[in-house]
Amino acid sequence: MSDPAITIIGAGAIGSFLATRLAEAGLATTLVARGARLEQLRARAPALCGGAKGHRGRIDPAPRATGPADILFLCVKAHALREALAANGAANGPGTTVVPLVNGIPFWHFADRPEGERSVPVIDPEGAILAAAGPHAVLGCVTYIAAELTGDGDVLSPTAPRLALGPARAGGPDGRAVAALAARAGIDVERPRDIRSAVWHKLAINLATNPLSALTDTSVGEIAANAELLAIAADIAAEVRALAAAYGFDTGLSAEGLAETMAAANDFSTSMRQDARAGRPLELGAICHAPLALAARAGVAMPVTRSIVHLLAASAPGKVRPAPAPNLEREVA
Description:
Blueprint (H helix, E strand, L loop, with lengths): L5 E4 L3 H12 L4 E4 L2 H9 L4 E2 L9 E4 L8 E4 L6 H7 L9 E4 L27 H6 L5 E6 L3 E2 L5 E2 L5 E6 L8 H9 L3 E3 L4 H22 L3 H6 L1 H20 L8 H10 L6 H8 L5 H15 L4 H12 L13 H4 L2
Parallel strand pairs: 1-2, 1-5, 2-4, 3-9, 5-6, 10-11
Antiparallel strand pairs: 7-10, 8-9
Helix pairs in contact: 6-8, 6-10, 6-12
């Protein structure tokens, strides 16, 4: 049986990590990139710092997808998904499994609900992203991969990679084919009973660390080592747990578990801190604004989270101006 056709949209840290691991496993992969990153990839395939043994497979950098993929990985930020899918519609064929590797509340979170109830505030308020991806084609995925791009375009990933996979709705892809690929690439896979519980667990970690790290320009390990910052992170995680409960889920993350997870990250910089330092728009929508909109909809107070997010939006490190915040009142009306 031949290997599946694989396309990865997005050549940032996560997309480049995944492409490199798949190449090392002998799997040919099309990696869609733009601008200077595309030229960098055309000049030299990225190396995986600390793990690469040489590339046995092939990475094909391209400005856009030109044909249907068996497996389509979406590795762009949530605010770029709609444009990325529109520009690469050729990759999403009738038999394609779409795997979004995104942070925060995903556009597919309510895909198992009746039509008309599937939109996600802030991220996909009209349901356009879910419609473009195809509710029947989406495999829910939660990513536990710590990765950074070096100045040379290589990938630094200090921890063991892991994915959680599960159907976004009944009758959707079950994840076995993607799990087999991940295993070949040395990526551990979990198959939780409900993928959305894994979403909320990861959101609690992301929301407790990303805005705070960008606001204070600190690594996750530095937050863990600072009693005052760690207390703020724990308060945010507790607020996310209350929000998850309002929607019928449990983050499964205690204050002690959060502290241990953060301490283990050492000097790792969150994606939001990386973006702030590079002058890129911050990923506030999926990680911050969507949860706050869901909280407003459910009547859940998140005062600590809201304060940190407002402070970050007002003054990001390095005078970075985040992407415009949505009108939460309008989103939840």
